[in-house]
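Q: I'm writing up a methods section and want to include an example of the input and output format. Could you take the sequence below and give the corresponding predicted structure tokens, formatted cleanly so I can copy it straight into the document?
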Amino acid sequence: MNTTTASTETTTTPITAEWRDFYALTKPGVMKLVVFTGLCGLLAAPGSIHPILGLTAILCIALGSGGAAALNQWYEADVDAAMKRTSKRPLPAGRMERDSALHFGLGLSGLSVFLMGVGVNWVAAAILAFCIFFYAVIYTMWLKPSTPQNIVIGGAAGAFPPMIGWAAVTGDITLMPILLFTLIFIWTPPHFWALALFVKSDYANAGIPMMPVVAGRESTRKQILAYSVVLAAIAIAPTLLGLADWIYGVPATALSLMFVWLAYRVYRNTATEPSEMKPEKRLFAFSIVYLFVLFGAVVADRYLVGWII
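A: Here is the clean output for your methods example:
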């Protein structure tokens, strides 16, 4: 009787990621806001740009944003796995190899900068390149894991798109795009800290020194209110300086007052359980609407004020 001994071989089956996984690497939710503010910067800039070049510039901003997001997820795969909110992303969920995310991120980033420089202008390309570097290296690799001021300084990464859009048209940077940059820069801490307050345990488990983890909820709430007051001043500055008219000024003033009110409600809240943090959740949701409407108003002010008056 012949006995056949089956040899068991341990093989590693390559992970085949779907297109949906690569799309998820680009953080499409964040990209929408990045692309929108970049488009608004482009449309609000004085002068004109050929529609094809304008579309090229916006495509490059989208590609650069997606590339930076992919590099962020490549580097933070272990951190994402430790957080409930991010554990289902392609890398921590095991749907993609880390090298695939790295190559995808580098490819998108390089392509976006090259295409912006060759197709539009090198000023916009240089700002885009620095934006990608700032988010992927300075924020992701250095600031985020090392300091509770990560969002304060790192907020610059998300503030560059309107400057890139503006530079795509004009080839330079003036006071108005600097104010738009500052608006997003100051908006970022209260926006993210509102989120961090009700997902504090996630950041604590992952070892990320977000402000609520390091300084506590009370201190974070005070800082949210302080930043919101400064944000309101920055938001109405274009009108006060004569760079925008009332079509921007009216909604900017009204929405900024609402932002400060919601921040005050957060400041007054003493809840420690996420289920009791309705003011924080309201501020987080409103902050997204706030930025979309304000940047839309910048464009409306540029094109409609002459018609209405």
